[in-house]
């Protein structure tokens, strides 16, 4: 089958940075979004062996009676420990990657010019190596905290815990080709996004491996 040389762009950012908001803006332009969060839920249905591996590793108590995974309970359990988190990730991430690559392949088969991989933990999972470009969405921490408190109705302490659990902005920025400052109004964000997408289309593919 003929395939195009789709430009693959990673979109990432910390919790509450505005990544989903920007993802929606991109979708409105008829550009394909490959949503890693959505895929992380879908793989549980596509590959039943994941559930089996989780059951063997963590036990029956993380499952509902109907056999579906109690994501919240398991999430709370592994959140406390780096080792447990890694164990769960080692089970599930290969499947997520497989699905992401599969969706990129479909974009190529559909001769799409550009595809966006929307992944909050793109860099944590070393997916940036497969991207032609990486866009990092950022806001100052004060705005980030206020927006998440408002969106998720959580306390400042809970929000801080979630922020501290992610790679810091300073670490992520090293891998970014473009940065969107989403601390101001949405028009400002939209105009930065338009410039970046134009620039990417002008530059074309930028394979790093
Ligand atoms: P993320 O997907 O990175 O966690 P969201 O896109 O959900 O972040 O944005 C976090 C919250 O901030 C949402 O409630 C969203 O509506 C709001 N928000 C995003 N960008 C802006 C902005 N530029 N100005 C004001 N509010 C914003």
From TrEMBL:
It catalyses: 3'-dephospho-CoA + ATP = ADP + CoA + H(+). Its main location: cytoplasm. Pfam families: CoaE. This is Dephospho-CoA kinase. It is found in: Cytoplasm. InterPro entries: Depp_CoAkinase, P-loop_NTPase. It comes from the Bacteria. The gene is coaE. ATP binds at residues 16-21. Residues 146-173 form a coiled coil. It is an enzyme of class 2 (transferase). The keyword Mitochondrion does not apply.
């Amino acid at each position: 089958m003929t395939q195009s040389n789709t430009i693959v762009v990673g979109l990432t950012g910390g919790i509450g940075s505005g990544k989903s908001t920007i993802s929606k803006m991109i979708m409105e332009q008829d550009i394909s979004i490959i949503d890693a969060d959505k895929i992380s839920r879908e793989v549980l249905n596509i590959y039943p062996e994941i559930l089996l591996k989780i059951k063997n590793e963590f036990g029956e108590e993380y499952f509902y009676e109907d056999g579906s995974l109690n994501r919240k309970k398991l999430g709370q359990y592994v959140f406390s420990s780096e080792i447990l988190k890694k164990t769960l990730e080692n089970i599930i991430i290969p499947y997520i990657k497989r699905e992401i690559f599969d969706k990129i392949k479909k974009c190529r088969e559909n001769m799409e010019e550009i595809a966006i991989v929307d992944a909050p933990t793109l860099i944590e999972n070393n997916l940036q190596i497969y991207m032609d470009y990486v866009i990092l969405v950022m806001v100052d921490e004060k705005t980030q905290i206020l927006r998440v408190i408002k969106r998720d109705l959580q306390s400042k302490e809970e929000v801080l815990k979630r922020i501290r659990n992610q790679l810091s902005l300073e670490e992520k920025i090293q891998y970014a080709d473009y940065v969107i400052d989403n601390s101001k109004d949405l028009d400002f964000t939209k105009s930065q996004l338009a410039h970046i997408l134009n620039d990417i289309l002008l530059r074309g593919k930028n394979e790093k491996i």
